[in-house]
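Support request, priority: normal
Reporter: lab tech (M.K.)
Component: structure prediction queue

Hi team, I submitted a job for DUF4142 domain-containing protein from Streptomyces sp. R41 yesterday, and the status page still shows it as pending. I've pasted the exact input below so you can check whether something in the sequence is tripping the parser. The sequence length should be 264 residues. Please let me know if I need to resubmit or if it's stuck on your end.
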Amino acid sequence: MRRINGTALVIAALVATVGALAFPVWSYADRSGTGQANLAAGTVNTRWGPLSAADRDLIVRVRLAGLWELPAGQQAIERAPTKAIKEAGDHLIVGHTDLDKRVRIVAAQLNVELPNQPNEQQQGWLKELTAASGKEYEYKFANLLRAAHGKIFPAIGAVRNSTRNTLVRQLASDTNLTVLDHITMLEKTGEVDFDAIANDTAGLSTASPTGPPPPTIGAPASSAPPVQPGNGVDVSSSPSALPQGGADINTRRPEPTDSDNVLQ
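Reply from support: The job had stalled in the queue. We restarted it manually and it finished. Here are the results:
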């Protein structure tokens, strides 16, 4: 293994501690019914559309993420063992400062109670980072945070796909861009262990791969024709989230509207 002694133990610890992020923090008494029945049981109506348990879970998780990732980013800037880690810390602070404003406004409008401190698990991660030093700190910073972002990434997409609430839909879109930006910056540190991520993900999957068979090594691949419109079609838009400054993700967006003065 690379970088530090006992890396395998560190990987195992990261997988175990971050694994809980794959599961929602909400619960209700009876989950034995159909998916539709469970959806109805946890849903309340609002002026912005139905608000499901999964919607509320995302709101809480966005808040929780900021409560521990922003301090982790501040610590990275203060320690600054490398330029890349300092830059990643900067993005964590900027991203979660912005998201926190948005989630507080949304939560107030939807009457969702938010936590005010990291949960016990997240406090443990912060303690791990505080206790680590040197290469161990660099490795833990990149991999703890990258694993946490990787776990919530598909959850954001699932809520963005299924929610019927316009406020939650916009929050999911905003969060998606921020999480992708943070993943990108953490990977730019050069410390992310992609083998550990792949093995962790494979361990959680129960489905068999359905992709094409493995390629024949050394054999040329057939070329694929481009997907493009026919002649005479004029387009004017640009791809969304165009990279800015190399590999960074464009997270620029208007400030949230705070009509209820939640941020005052």
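DSSP finds eight helices and no strands in the chain. The radius of gyration is 21 Å. Let us know if anything else looks off. Ticket resolved.
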